[in-house]
Amino acid sequence: MQTGNNMLLSGRIYLSTIYRLKKQGGRVRSVEVARQLGYTKPSISRAINNFAKEGYLTVESGGILTLTKQGEKEAADIVKRQDIIAKFLVMTCDVTPEKALTDATGMEIHMSRETFRGMKNFIKQVEALQSESGE
Fold first, then answer.
1. Cα gap 51→46, rounded to integer Å
2. 128/106 Cα distance (integer angstroms)
3. Are 120 and 86 members of one domain?
4. Cβ contacts of residue 115 below 8 Å, gap of 6+?
5. Which residue, of 74, 92, 112, is where some domain finishes?
6. What's the pLDDT tens digit per position in 109-126?
7. pTM exceeds 0.70 for this model
8. Which among 22, 44, 52, 134 has most CB atoms closer than 10 A?
């Protein structure tokens, strides 16, 4: 797995899923990741082992997954980008937040910095207009 935008899509999805599950409920195990993504437990286990080898997470007793500092930083950056893209999609495409997040998860890895910057600027402009008008 590579870091940054070059990380494989599946790796970015796994890390962001672990990060989001941790924020929602604390302890995360492979079975929760498998359930969330709709993947089989064996495929999740293989990925988890690879992430552990590469220093993104550790597997504690009881199978609890813990992101390392490196994994936490990478996952937080991925989630931040996904959330901004999802917000843009909700604002411009009239989709539900859930659908927007699903789409953003797939779009995030392929998006150029320029396009992402444009989305962020668009959101800032709309929010500034809304605050000026009192919405």
1. 9
2. 28
3. yes
4. none
5. 74
6. 889 999 999 999 999 999
7. yes
8. 44
